[in-house]
Specification:
The structure holds two protein chains of two kinds. By secondary structure, chain A is of the alpha/beta class. In chain A, 52% of the residues lie in helices and 13% in strands.
């Protein structure tokens, strides 16, 4: 699966959160990225046909941005207005069946974004225009990945964020136990690179055990389902 | 935890401690969490099976 991350951030290079995410996605082969602000910063401007054509080669498109006044920074809206023409989206259905994911970063705590919280509105409500766009375009809208208060995260939280983010970019959705297991097995394979034969064998044994455990979980689940069906 | 899960946690902790890459460390840690989750799900299903098989309704 091929993923394109469209980043909207006026100060991408200066953002610690964005640099962390960038270092993370560099570890994946089938992920490409584009900083929209850099596209608009070019002297010859944005080539709309080129951008439209480039999008076709990807299965999952990610909008990644910090939340500015309950929306994305202006560059994403500009990009959408310019590249997602009515002809491209509605008449030609050019991005139909692709997935649209949102990676939004917040300076405030995620917990504030709920009814009764200091921000009052949920992230789902605030991102509704992007969900509506996905709906109109025939795209599958993925549950947004919210990264809040990165600066306060300890190393354990950053480890978890890294995995959540990489899975959001490249794992099969929904993120069921089976899909997470499949994804982790692939990543474990990649960690063998540059390791001694002994270490590689240890990783292979881990993979075999994980797969056995997963088969056991699936088989027990089937048994439970069968007995439930017999009883009802 | 089953013996297999305990063994997995031990192996993965060693791999994590021996690796310098933050990305690899994160992958090993996530695998530890996954192994524990598998263990929990298997136990829950096993308990439900036992409960349903030994239900007094069937006595």
């Amino acid at each position: 699966m091929k993923t394109l991350i469209l980043i909207s951030h006026p100060k991408f290079e200066d953002s610690g959160t964005q640099q962390f995410l960038k270092t993370s996605f560099y570890s994946l082969d089938d992920v490409k990225y584009q900083v929209i602000d850099e596209l608009y910063g070019q002297s010859d401007g944005i080539d709309i046909e080129k951008e439209q054509s480039a999008l076709k080669g990807f299965d999952r498109i990610i909008f990644q941005f910090p939340m500015y006044w309950y929306s994305s920074p202006a560059s994403l809206k500009q990009f959408m207005d310019d590249v997602f023409t009515r002809n491209y989206i509605v008449a030609n259905r050019s991005v139909k069946t692709k997935q649209l994911g949102i990676v939004v970063t917040l300076g405030d705590a995620k917990a504030d974004f709920q009814a009764g919280g200091s921000e009052q509105f949920t992230i789902s409500e605030l991102l509704r225009p992007l969900q509506a766009f996905a709906h109109k375009a025939g795209m599958q809208y993925l549950k947004p990945l919210v990264v809040d208060q990165f600066g306060y995260m300890d190393p354990e939280q950053k480890e978890k964020l890294l995995i959540d983010y990489l899975q959001y970019l490249s794992a099969e959705m929904p993120l069921s136990l089976a899909n997470r297991e499949k994804w982790l097995v692939e990543r474990l394979q990649s960690t063998k690179q540059g390791k001694s034969d002994e270490k590689q064998q240890a990783i292979d044994l881990v993979i075999n055990s994980l797969e056995d455990q997963q088969n056991n979980v699936e088989s027990l689940k089937e048994d439970v389902k069968m007995i439930r069906n017999q009883e009802e | 935890m089953t013996d297999t899960t305990e063994w997995l946690v031990k192996q993965l902790t060693e791999l994590k401690n021996d690796d310098q890459s933050f990305i690899n460390k994160s992958i090993y840690q996530a695998t530890i969490e996954l192994a524990k989750e598998q263990d929990k799900r298997a136990q829950q299903s096993q308990d439900e099976l036992d409960g349903r098989i030994w239900s007094p309704d069937k006595w």
